[in-house]
Amino acid sequence: PRKAVAQAPARHLAKYIFPRQFGLHNVFTSDKARTSFQIMPDYLDREVEIKKLGPVKTPERLKPVLPILDKLATLSARCNYRKLLDRRCPSKVRSLFASSTAQH
Questions:
Q1: Hey, which of 18, 46, 51, 72 has its CA 20 to 30 A from 25?
Q2: Which tens digits make up the pLDDT trace of 88-100?
């Protein structure tokens, strides 16, 4: 039971990465043929679909991946993405704004 609770975030992340393995809708399979003008579902937020599905047993083939997904979730939670973005992709607008305010 403790292991299942500890791996809950990894299992939840697995539902986003491997939706087909859990019986969730995915971009590769569809119940009916789509026409080009139909809107594709938004796969960024699957919370409603996951709640509707309810508890699902994790497929055996995905169990070895759970420790990796757990580490990914932990490192992602620790990362300061704003700081990383500012360092690796500095905004020219911000630097122009800073230099113009320094001159006045």
A1: 72
A2: 888 777 666 666 6
